[in-house]
Known about the structure:
Layout: H1 2-48, E1 61-63, E2 66-67, H2 73-83, E3 91-95, E4 98-102, E5 106-109, H3 113-122, H4 130-140, E6 145-147, E7 153-155, H5 157-171, E8 179-183, E9 188-192, E10 197-199, H6 202-214, E11 221-222, E12 226-228, H7 232-245, E13 254-258, E14 263-267, E15 272-274, H8 277-289, E16 295-299, E17 301-303, H9 311-317, E18 325-327, E19 330-332, E20 337-339, H10 342-350, E21 357-361, E22 363-365, H11 371-376, E23 381-389, H12 394-407, E24 410-412, E25 417-419, H13 420-424, E26 435-440, E27 443-448, H14 453-465, E28 469-472, E29 499-501, E30 508-515, E31 518-525, E32 532-543, E33 547-552, E34 560-564, E35 569-579, E36 585-596, E37 601-606
Parallel strand pairs: 1-6, 3-11, 33-37
Antiparallel strand pairs: 1-2, 3-4, 5-7, 8-9, 9-16, 10-12, 13-14, 14-21, 15-17, 18-19, 20-22, 23-31, 24-30, 25-29, 26-27, 28-29, 30-31, 32-35, 34-37, 35-36
Helix pairs in contact: 2-3, 5-6, 7-8
Amino acid sequence: MEEYLNEKASFGSSHTAAKPWRLIVITALLLVMTIAAAAASCYVYYVIHPYENYDRILPNVYCAGVELSGMTQAEAKQAIEEAFREPVHSLRVVLPDCEYTFQPEQKGLTLNSESIASRAYAYGRSDRSAYGIFKAFRRAKGTEYRMDPETALEYSKEDVEALSRTISQETYIAPTESQVSCDPETHTVSLLLGTPGRRIDPQTVYEAVCGAFDELSFEDVTLSYDKVEIDLDAVESMCRSAAYDYHLFPVHPQAYADAENHAIALTMGTRGWKLDGDALYSLAEDAVNGESYGTVELAMEPIEPREADISGPCEALAAEPTEPYYYGGSVLEGSPGYTLDWDAAAELIAGASYGESIVIPMTEVAPKRTAAEIQAVLFRDRLGSCNTDHTSNSNRTNNLILACKAIDGTVLNAGERFSFNGIVGERTASKGYLPATVYVGTESTEQLGGGICQVASTIYDAALYAEMEILSRAAHTFFVTYVPGGLDATVYWGALDFSFRNSTEYPVRVNAWVSGGQVHVTLDGTKTNDHVVELKSVHLSTTPYSTVYVNDSSKPKGYEKETTYPYTGYSYEAYQNIYDGNGNLLESNYLGYSSYSKRDRVITVGTG
């Protein structure tokens, strides 16, 4: 029991100690609530309560252009009546640089001002409590309310329409046109953009004015102009035309051969110019979009002329010098040649300006020798010679003599060509040629000039000894005996020719004659080396002929005669070996392969 009392006493002591803090918290809460209640009461009394008997029209209420805000109904009625007391109403339209007054013909206006004032007062008062009016007041301050006066002014819309058209016409300013030009010195194209115009749509004016009269709002109506942009289609067409009009084609270089002065006359080309019309229009379009109506410029692109080509005139003027040449028994002076110093010409061309005329001289090249130098050594040396035995056939010998006479004394200047057929000509009876054996295919036949192939063969060998350049040579069909195998040359008028070129730097004379049963040929000129020439004939093969017997019933028995003369077939190769004066082989030239056909011996036997 005692313990219980002690515990109770202990508990009671703890509770008593906590009680003051509880009282403080409760007291604070009660104080806050009291202050809040007092504040709420004050807010209601001083902010909300005044709207309990608010007898004014809410803010931002208008009718027929008259602001009714804050008025009583009586004041609103009076204000509406005074606003429309004048018998004729007018309206001013204000534009950026001018103004117009509309006063169309009017027949009067019936206005119920009392109804307007009543409706204006009722606006926003769906909740007529003080708090409801307070909220409506605050909402009205942020929003305009324009009332329909529910009446109409009878006025002439025709008058409004006519004046609207007049305003549109009088205030219209057309955009100015763009202009394009080109500076010929800088090759720059300038496009001066036009300036935009302005206009106001008569319908816009008409609708604004009629709307104001219909609403019975006669405050100034402020309108602005619409911009009339420049015609970009016309600008684009102008840019394209400029690209064509200002296009300048390049003038290409012109080169001429001045044969009199041995020079090339060259007029340098000039640049052309082209305009990118699309690029110019793009600049113009960007400027218009950025409302910058000044000048846009675009440099034209150069078109370079072709590079100067002087190869044609150079080719016409260039020439090798003509060496002194033999003519009519004496040596005549040669003439200079001309060549071009291409490096010097390129330097001249590179330094020339557009359109400049320049002269490019050819360089004179003198002949290697003078006529006197040639004359001093003319036909001084025996360059080559050959002698061939001929048969004792009189017709054939006659033909050999005629051919040699035609050739004898022929002089070839340096580089000239000897043509056997060209010099001897056609073998005709009028020239004294007689029939003799010639080979035509595999047949032997008698023709005028037969046998003169021996002269051609003799000249061929003499030319080889003289180291002439052989141009054309053909072997006989059948083997001949007057020169070694592979060293013969056959000719036939109109088909086969023998020719060579004088490959020395001096005139060469061909001497030819017949005597002592031989054909003699010498080539005399001026020897400039110590060469010794050896001709070598290499036998490769032999093809014997056969004897063939042919029966002929038209001949009597016991008749037997050789009717086809036989030839043995051979093949040869020929070489030209050239030695120096000490016997050293300098070169060995292969002259070719020659094949001679065999022809069988034919004996005709009579069987008749």
